[in-house]
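--- STAGE predict ---
source: upstream dedup step, 1 unique chain passed
mode: sequence only
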Amino acid sequence: MQNIKTCFQKYFVFSDRASRSEYWSFFFFTLITTIILGGISLYNSYFISIANIFGIITFIPGITVMVRRLHDTNRSGWWFFINLIPIIGNIAFIVFLLQKSHPSKNQWNN
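--- STAGE serialize ---
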């Protein structure tokens, strides 16, 4: 829960680093919550609005934690755009996110 809380506390912070556990905790939190809200919204249209609001609220922190995760692997946040290359770019991006943290200081440390 601390990792998820950290992502919301650093809502607009792009210039720091995020550990693997911080990124993946937030990723799975948003994934599981979206699946649950989506499943409930099939039976109750009120939850469609809640699911949409949840998506809007978690959109920016999702991007910022992803950029900070790339910084932690000593890469620029611009590497996100490797996803525009079908299949190979997506696989490379996932590998970047799964890599260990870069042990020494880099230009994104605060």
